[in-house]
Write a structure and sequence with these properties.
Blueprint (H helix, E strand, L loop, with lengths): L1 E2 L6 E2 L1 E9 L15 E8 L6 E3 L5 H4 L12 H18 L6 E5 L8 H4 L4 E5 L3 H9 L4 E2 L5 H11 L2 E7 L8 H11 E12 L1 H7 L11 E2 L2 H9 L3 E9 L5 E8 L8 H12 L4 H27 L4 E4 L3 H9 L10 E2 L17 E2 L1 H6 L4 E4 L5 H7 L1 H5 L3 E4 L5 E3 L1
Parallel strand pairs: 6-7, 6-9, 7-8, 9-10, 14-15, 14-17, 15-16, 17-18
Antiparallel strand pairs: 1-2, 3-4, 4-5, 5-11, 10-13, 12-13, 18-19
């Protein structure tokens, strides 16, 4: 039993994914013996409807100078963030000389769209290596964690913000009340907060349990976001479903009464009620679906191994760490994982220690099967790797169900 991170209600886990390592903690052989593990258990709060990790590693263990994810490696996401920036500019920039702040700005993939237009901006990025990459690209960036103190510092130096943005970041932060207080202090009276994160409704519907890993402290729904922000005088004014990351939601918020509320908000809340996202029984069924998915994936890979088939993984994602460790899939079943990120290549996957290789090695000797860990970028990847399929290679996916793609 633990306390809800949002409302302090007593909660208990509805599922445990067992002992898990740092999801982005790709490591060398000499680091195996000292690798950190924690129990990845998830709870649901019936009072505020927030789905959350029961415990999380220290933030410095996850976000540091060796952070292994650079947003700009995905052209698909670059296009998405350009559209996100355009949406904000066209819908919410009313004042002359607007100022935009982004939390967890990574290597500046979104803010560069504002910088290139001459718009004042500030990125807040706690991982030193990606913050430095952003600065080299001309993006104003401070290397800090965002909280109320950081927000007041930014406001003092730059004035208040017309827009505060985040993408796949808010769900990472356990101390949400300090973050929301900071947002409120930094936001202009008519300013907006807009952020995107993996959506709980999609995770439940697709059994995409790989969205649960150390960095994802929360899985948000509209009802849980309303509960959190309403406590601080901020309200949800729009909600726009997004296709990114296998199903995300863009939440738009402002000061209480400052903006009209779009009809999408009550419509989406009604859908959440139909999905049962405020009921504990929904998450008991989710656990059963996760267990069935694990059995199906183990069975398939063991069967392929018994038939003498070569199987590799494709895309050494953070999400793959949960799948590999929960399903206990090691190099005996998947010989390597192909990934285009240089900082991961030549290292080993967290926990199960599968070698990470280059795309060139993947293409030099195609396997019989490739497990698509980057399933949320399926269309982009399959288009890039058409030759693999043309030479008889088959993809294995596990969301929304375990199957091979013909």
């Amino acid at each position: 039993m633990s306390q809800c991170a949002i409302c302090n209600t007593a909660i208990k886990p509805f599922i445990s994914f067992g002992q898990q390592p740092i999801a982005n903690g790709f490591l060398s052989k000499d680091q195996f013996a000292k690798e950190y593990f924690f129990e990845l258990a998830v709870g649901f709060c019936e009072k505020c409807t927030m789905v959350q990790l029961m415990s999380q590693p220290q933030r410095e263990q996850m976000f540091n100078e060796n952070y292994a994810f650079f947003s700009s490696t995905s052209q698909h996401m670059a296009v998405h963030f350009k559209a996100f920036a355009s949406y904000i500019r066209s819908h919410y920039f009313k004042d002359a000389d607007p100022f935009v702040v982004e939390l967890g700005s990574n290597d500046g993939i979104m803010l560069r769209n504002f910088a290139e237009a001459g718009i004042r901006h500030m990125g807040v990025e706690p991982s030193a290596n990606v913050a430095e990459a952003a600065r080299k690209n001309g993006i104003r960036t401070i290397c800090q964690f965002f909280d109320e103190e950081t927000a007041r510092f930014i406001a003092g130096e730059n004035g208040k913000a017309d827009a505060i943005l985040a993408a796949n970041v808010m769900c990472h932060i356990p101390y949400m009340h300090s973050v929301v207080k900071g947002m409120k202090a930094l936001l202009k009276p008519k300013g907006v907060i807009a952020f995107e994160d993996p959506y709980l409704g999609d995770v439940v519907e697709k059994t995409s349990y790989d969205q649960v890993y150390d960095e994802h402290m929360f899985l948000f729904s509209l009802s849980s976001i309303q509960y959190l922000f309403n406590q601080h005088g901020l309200e949800l004014i729009d909600a726009l479903p997004q296709p990114t990351h296998g199903g995300s939601m863009r939440y738009v918020l402002g000061h209480q009464g400052a903006h009209p509320i779009n009809e999408r908000v009550p419509q989406q809340l009604a859908k959440e009620s139909e999905l049962g996202l405020a009921k504990a029984a929904t998450f008991d069924r989710f656990r059963e679906n996760c267990e069935a998915s694990r059995q199906d994936l183990q069975r398939l890979l063991k069967d392929l191994k018994a038939k003498g088939k070569r199987v590799v993984g494709y895309a050494a994602t953070s999400k793959s760490t949960t799948v590999l460790n929960y399903c206990q899939i090691g190099p005996d079943l998947i010989e390597s994982i192909s990934d285009s990120t240089p900082i991961k290549q030549g290292k080993f996957s967290p926990g199960m220690h599968i070698p990470i290789s280059t795309p060139e090695k993947f293409r030099a000797a195609y396997p019989d099967y490739a497990v698509l860990f980057g399933w949320n970028h399926k269309h982009e990847i399959l288009a890039k790797e058409q030759e693999f399929a043309s030479k008889g290679g088959k993809w294995v996916v596990f969301v929304p169900r375990v199957e091979t793609l013909q």
